[in-house]
């Protein structure tokens, strides 16, 4: 899930998760009545517990972060956010995890954490089903399970902390490009592969967004596909500029595409002439924000994601919430969050990075 | 494989550069490159007819810059392929050298660019030595060995990078500027590629060692019997191919400004395609570095023009494949024409 892992950069995999989530939300309407029963089956002693919104956060909670893989810079940042939160509510933080993000590699870690009597397990699932049995075992043993970044099947976790919704991602990108081109002109999208479902979902939502009256003067001329390869993204960017001489801006909802397009624009005659925005990491884009090629771009802050996930776990373990829709809890300095349908908490709209704040981020 | 047979250079070392390919054979060699050139010209003409901006200065610069890395790799690959071998590890070597250079430059930003280039060359040459030594020691086809080292070098790259990514901001501005700089309107990277091409092409065409590579590829047993140090020459070809892949890695880092452990994955097939499209016979013994470079330029131009022509993305790969086949077909047609009747006889013979 790290944006740094380039073959399937973050927006791609996240999108798959977002899409899976959308499907889950769709089915939730039908299965909503049985959800409570599921919880009683899997949740053990906590199933009968009522949520007490006024309960204080328990001290000394043992909180374990289990990322997809250790040594992945994206998760290093996310887990560090979790560590900050755990320190704030005076718990014990630890991070364990496999060195390789394979489907079953997390199972033994979950089992060990369960045996150690861990109160909160915060994990990003490498596979929605592979860890399911182990997670339910841990929940029976009394642990609260929060997934973040990549969800496990809903029946084997208490909460999923989602970094952003597909709608939020589409909205922010349209808003950014509209600002940068002054609300009127031709724009194009530089996507990953033509078959990437998450990209296509976002593109569809961006088209809907562009249909709104406030964006009436913006015309989406085409969608190009850089296949998340440097060279292909370069060539597609060049092709866009040749084919549409009046192009005012490019939106690239993929980290590889955005970095490649920025690199091309920064060394060409189009720098400053053609606006560029999309989803990217601050480290990748720092140079291009500094040299004026890119004004602003968006992505969620992984540190905030880890921070929120840790607080959600603590709220569960302290009995403030049980994971049912409509419950609320406070996540430190991020403020109050509400549990949505199917036990999902959304971090919020993506963070916008520009020259003013980019140096505060390192991921 | 008729073309391979007809273009086989004489097995004994030439007495002069010109006699290297002989009169008729030389003409044939020129025709092959002519075929690729014609295909290239046709492609540019069609694209420019549909969109005249394809011929703008910026656009031509872009294509030359895009082609530079592939040209360097294809030229190195030519050295190996003419000896009836293949080097599939070039993509991984490129990745390793790109990451190594990025790491060097981010930890020591003051490193002068020539030193960075030498570092990449050296790292690549080291990988080439591993390839060459394994092939010489194991006496297993290079296809198998380099398929293995493709994964080994990539694995080393992965463990070295440990998920880290080197971004444009980590590298010195001067190095990034080198990636896009132009000299009299021509990208510096492209000039560097042309220099590499000129050196290798001259060596292959006019030097004893170069001619011996063709002899080895035409008939290894005969080459050995006639006293050519086959093992040493093949080893040398792999070292140079590795070194050039390393150089390409440095160019990649300078051009794209973003380097992680996946850089260059899968590029080896494009490199082999470029060489083959350029008339380098996959079974060795024939082809020129110029042809391979033209092949690389053609493949790059195909990519650029498809983007300009706005071909349906779902069809692009199929169109690329079709254009490659068309280029090879045109090339074969011209080769047969130029060779005339004897050529056709050899076609039958070869088939």
TrEMBL record, chain A:
It is found in: Cell envelope. GO terms for molecular function: carbohydrate binding. Keywords: Signal. Its main location: other. CDD domains: PBP1_ABC_rhamnose (cd20000). The keyword Isomerase does not apply. The keyword Amino-acid biosynthesis does not apply. GO terms for cellular component: outer membrane-bounded periplasmic space. This is Rhamnose ABC transporter substrate-binding protein. It comes from Streptomyces hainanensis. The lineage of its organism: Bacteria, Bacillati, Actinomycetota, Actinomycetes, Kitasatosporales.
From TrEMBL, chain B:
It comes from the Bacteria. One of its GO terms (cellular component) is plasma membrane. It is found in: Cell membrane. GO terms for molecular function: transmembrane transporter activity. Residues 1-25 are annotated as: Disordered. Keywords: Cell inner membrane, Cell membrane, Membrane, Transmembrane, Transmembrane helix, Transport. Pfam families: BPD_transp_2. Coiled coil: none annotated. The keyword Magnesium does not apply. It is a multi-pass membrane protein. The chain crosses the membrane at residues 34-51, 63-82, 117-138, 181-204, 234-254, 266-283, 290-308, 314-335. Part of the ABC transporter complex LsrABCD involved in autoinducer 2 (AI-2) import. Probably responsible for the translocation of the substrate across the membrane. The complex is composed of two ATP-binding proteins (LsrA), two transmembrane proteins (LsrC and LsrD) and a solute-binding protein (LsrB). This is Autoinducer 2 import system permease protein LsrC. It comes from Streptomyces hainanensis.
